[in-house]
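Hi W., the uridine-5'-diphosphate-xylopyranose complex you wanted:
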Amino acid sequence: MNICVIGTGYVGLVTGAVFADLGNEIICVDSNEEKVRNLNKGVMPIYEPGLEEMVRRNMSDKRLFFTTSIQNGVEKSELIFIAVGTPPKDNGETDLSQVKQVAGEIAEYINDYKIIINKSTVPVGTGNLVREIVGKNKQKQVDFDVVSNPEFLREGSAIKDTLHPDRIVIGAPSHKVAMKLLELYSTLERPMLITDVPSAEMIKYASNSFLATKISFINAIADICEKVDADVLQVAKGMGWDSRIGPDFLQAGLGYGGSCFPKDTESLFHTAAKYGIDFGLLREVITINEGRVDHFMGTIEGRMGDLSGKVLAMLGLAFKPDTDDLREAKSLELIERFLKKGAVVKTYDPVAMENCKRVYPNLIYCENPYEAAKDADALVIITEWREFKLLNLERIKAIMKQPLVFDGRNIYDPRVKKKLGFEYYGIGR
Ligand code: UDX
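Structure:
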């Protein structure tokens, strides 16, 4: 199929690459000239395992093209995916200006029947909005349909998630239109839900908000565990073995960050309010998440007292492992607090340090975890990178000023730590 993907952010770029890999001809459009120039040279704007190879392979096989010309993309394609950014406004509402702009441009160049598909995470009702904009502004008397096809990929496993999704959701105005998308996805052989447009739009927000709720729930349980000498890992395991609950997204820690959960929970709360519904449960989920850094700071200062002049070795900066993304990362909040208190921050992250340098150029950036730990008063674990789990702890202990660990992601077993002579503080244990 000839497909145009507008927006080469996380979702657009991965979707474009995977569709090309499945044998389709893809034109990826982005208004950022530098990004397009780089992509045409095979330089990726993001770090994502497997993406660069896939993009390069499909470019050289002439199935994947990058351009700034939306006209070119729209005219040559039967399916047009909108995958532009939908950032939050200050009040939590979703900013749809990029979606509206793209809908206007599609209207300008639409030359034949097209299916326009919203892949960006957009509030319920956006499908209608896109239909109205294109319908009012189209220059030629041609038909089109608007579909909602939300994306559920996670950063760090984006390619795998796109090739093997738990489900594919297609919100279409008619069965005939849905069949076209079904044809595109059929090679993946995954469960597909065909539904109406508003339901598909709601599925995305409801799913992300539910997962965020699981995380905040277990974090609230962790706080109780700390008071009653229980271990939240054991509690989560015992809960997760109940198949009605499931083990995923019950990892207590510093809470959720990234480009989706914080923004999508706020957006759904806002949508509910718009329709006169007070989604108090979701408000509390957000409040619990926002309190995680305070809680961790309380633990650190409770043990260390005044942080002024203390050397803190922060391991991990990215909002989660296998990405260099710092959006809504808990590390940034913590760095801000540590610096305000006068602490010296040494840090190491396998891939996110370059991004962090742009925000905090004056931290001590280290070559590896051992360099960060050298002469540190405490080791502070922020992101659960695999390599941190496998550190030589005896070596770490020998080079630190004192063997003190604050583990914001519960990557270590406190008993092992104690056996090695560390003073250990996890979350909820
Ligand atoms: C999420 C959704 O999972 C994905 O379906 C959607 O398309 C985009 O948003 P992503 O933000 O990439 O994906 O990461 P995810 O792995 O879901 O983690 C989100 C945040 O929750 C991270 O900060 C992570 O550290 C945190 N988290 C996750 C927890 O604190 N505990 C958990 O048990 C799981």
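The longest helix spans residues 197-228.

W.
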